[in-house]
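In keeping with the milestone schedule agreed at the kick-off meeting, the structural modelling team has produced records for the first pair of proteins. Each record is given below as a sequence line and a structure-token line. The laboratory manager (R.T.) confirmed that both were archived under the project's standard naming scheme.
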Amino acid sequence: MTCAKTGLKLVSSSSIRRLEDEIHALRMKMEQSYVEEATFSSEKVIGLSRLLDTKINEYMRFKTNRGTAQLS
């Protein structure tokens, strides 16, 4: 669903909660992978880090758009 006023995609609070949970799980998985690999430069750790970055960016876009929509 999109907002008629802003054209932004609306995201439910349950979707945001799932995203927060996914970010937390990815962070834990990346930390565990670092412990196992003993280096930040392993492909596994780098891949998880990139995925985590993508999810954090998605979360931040939502928070920014939501704040802007609330100010309107």
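The second protein of the pair:
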Amino acid sequence: MTSERANGLVHMTRTVCSVAADLAQNVERAVVGPARVRTATGNAWEAVLADRARASQRDEARRHLATLAATRR
């Protein structure tokens, strides 16, 4: 395969991927609405909230275990 042909193939592949990404984004906007489109910032905030929820559950479990340990003594 010549270098020129390989470059053309790479360019075509990038173009197809770009068009597919744009299509997926447009479909998402159409399905869920522009206000609910997932973004990196939204994903990060959801991760923060999930971490806080897990920490809260761990703290609650520790309190329950401490209460159980205190009542058994």
